[in-house]
Amino acid sequence: MRFDSTLYYHVGEDYSWPTLFDEMHETVGLLDELDFGGVWLAEHHFAWDGWYRSGSNPILFGADVARYSDRLRIGQCGIILPDWHPLRVAEDIAFLDQMTRGRVDFGIAPGINSRACMQFHEAADRRNRPRNQALFEENLEVILAALNQETFSHQGEFYRFPAGEWTDNPMVHDPRFHNEDGELVRMAISPRPYQNPIPIYQMAESPGSIERAARRGIGTMSQSLSAGRIRENWEIYRDTATEAHGRPFALGEGLSVMRPAYIAETREEAERDARHGFNLLGQWGSIGLYKQWQGMVTEDEAEEGDFDLDFFDFQIKHGLLLIGTPDSVSEQIERLRSELNCAHLALFLNIPLLSYEQVTRSLRLFGEEIMPKFADAPAADVRASA
Length: 386
What we know:
alpha/beta; 37% helix
């Protein structure tokens, strides 16, 4: 089973950036030492008040992270495609993949409602979901063409490539790119990715997003969904991918789960340390990420009074948090493995108000006491319940 992690950003704190970078570099080394598989780097903008302070460029940060491990895979959770120019994304991801000799997991997302959601492109305003989705889809179309095709062209609602009319020097005429008059009619990025194809994960939780990802051959990563909701989505992915790609897909194939995680010696200590900060995270996220609690669980899982619980207790009850002792968290992971065929789990470390020392102690407990239990775990046989 593959285990990855995010880094810890001191969410909600006006924390020293030089100190934060030192801590994050140390954490990359710790993840390497503990034999984690990869690290996922987030994108957020304009965090002058600490919310949300992970950094603005996970591709650039990925190049920095690569200095501290020559083994860990480097992912983005995710690149907010409406905030980027699609050709820049394709070039930068391909460049990073070459720099790291094929260690990139390209993560993408449409973004959340925040102060950043229309600062880079007016159509990125997530309050207008159809337009934001249209920009996301077109950007992704361009990026996939640039990464996967030897040459490409594009004409859509927001972009046209090649842009304008451009006649190259006739001495460099190439029929792959130019028409008979020397006009540039197709393009290519350089360098191409080291991997062929480069793995892509979309941060996706809605059934529509899951289906679109499956048709494209893109994996997904979900965070705030119960086991029942994950099963619903993964069955959609399995059935759609099987139909679209002409071969049987297993439940969970190519898919991953991210879970907030904090491990301590006792359950009481873990819950005491994490409760207030996680409830603050829920209050902050009420503007977008965590607004619809009902969508996190199935109708069969929800019980009377669930939505009157505080955010922490609701998520604990429905198994949405890996918070507890090594033994209790191992039991939750085994459920994901045995019931859903989950073979790829990433830890979300950013529970506010924890100290760096608490987070690294938690990571050590996870790496030394939980991960070895799943080192040789076989894929679960979920055919009977699928």
